[in-house]
């Protein structure tokens, strides 16, 4: 399976190119295990995005088909039966794949941080985390990233918090906007009031968030390639 295809977003194509450029810089500059880890993380994210977009297209197609069936049934078309039963199993496949994307991208940023450490004479270790760099202004790499990538650490903090919420288990509902080719779907993370035993709609998560995550990942990889090249 290719890492990208005709359905890939511009953000995914950008990440694929950014990885290729950084990978050439890393060759023989970092331990092979670190380089292969980064490669695996990029490929996991891109391959998973291919699957996620297919599930999103299927979800939108099913929603539109159900809408048409309901309209025809409501209009009393004698040739049409009742609307088909909605099988939520497929919807939750999409939701699960959407949430899993956050795990792949989170791992990617840790892998880039490890490569940066090793590429600048440090020692990354197995559990080096971009979170350590983001929260510590005295980290040697922190000021360089903060200056070159405005807003990156703010985005990373929000992304990490959302991933952590998913990590402990969060259910979903679904929200559709538009009809036909313009239909958009989002998973909705609930707000739960345990005292009142009530559940209401909360934050929406969609492929817009995934595209933003790929763009931020690409910015990090592009800067990392230029930074390591300048310190060679």
The tally of structural domains comes to 1
Secondary-structure element order, N to C: HHHHHHEEEEEH
**Rounded average pLDDT:** 91
The Cα radius of gyration reads 21 Å
Query: Which range does the strand content fall in?
Result: 5-15%
Number of E-type strands: 5
Structural class: mainly alpha
Low-confidence residue ranges: none
Task: Characterise this structure.
With 232 residues, this protein is mainly alpha-helical. It has one domain. It is built from 7 helices and 5 strands. The chain has helices at 10-26, 32-74, 88-119, 130-135, 142-148, 152-167, 207-230, and strands at residues 173-177, 184-188, 191-193, 198-200, 204-205. The strands form 2 sheets. A 3-stranded antiparallel beta sheet has the order 1-2-5, with helices on both faces. The protein starts with 9 loop residues before the first helix and ends with a helix. The mean pLDDT is 91.
Give the topology, please:
Blueprint: H1 10-26, H2 32-74, H3 88-119, H4 130-135, H5 142-148, H6 152-167, E1 173-177, E2 184-188, E3 191-193, E4 198-200, E5 204-205, H7 207-230
Antiparallel strand pairs: 1-2, 2-5, 3-4
Helix pairs in contact: 1-2, 1-7, 2-3, 3-6, 3-7
Briefly say what this structure is.
The chain has 7 helices and 5 strands, in the order H-H-H-H-H-H-E-E-E-E-E-H. With 232 residues, the protein is mainly α.
């Amino acid at each position: 399976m290719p890492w990208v295809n005709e359905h890939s977003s511009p953000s995914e194509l950008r990440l694929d190119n950014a990885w290729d450029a950084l990978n050439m810089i890393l060759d023989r500059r970092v331990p092979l295990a670190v380089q292969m880890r980064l490669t695996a993380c990029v490929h996991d994210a891109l391959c998973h995005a291919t699957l996620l977009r297919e599930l999103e297209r299927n979800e939108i197609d099913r929603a539109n088909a159900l809408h048409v069936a309901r309209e025809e049934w409501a209009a009393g078309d004698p040739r049409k039966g009742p609307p088909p039963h909605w099988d939520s199993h497929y919807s939750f496949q999409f939701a699960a794949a959407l949430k899993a994307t956050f795990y792949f991208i989170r791992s990617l940023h840790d892998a880039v941080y490890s490569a940066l450490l090793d590429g600048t004479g440090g020692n990354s270790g197995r559990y080096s985390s971009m979170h350590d760099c983001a929260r510590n202004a005295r980290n040697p790499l922190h000021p360089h990233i903060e200056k070159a990538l405005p807003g990156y650490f703010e985005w990373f903090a929000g992304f990490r918090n959302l991933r952590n919420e998913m990590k402990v288990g969060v259910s979903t509902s679904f929200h559709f906007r538009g009809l036909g080719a313009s239909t958009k779907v989002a998973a909705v993370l609930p707000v739960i009031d345990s005292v009142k035993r009530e559940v209401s709609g909360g934050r929406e998560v969609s492929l817009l968030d995934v595209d933003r995550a790929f763009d931020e990942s690409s910015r990090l990889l592009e800067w990392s390639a230029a930074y390591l090249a300048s310190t060679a």
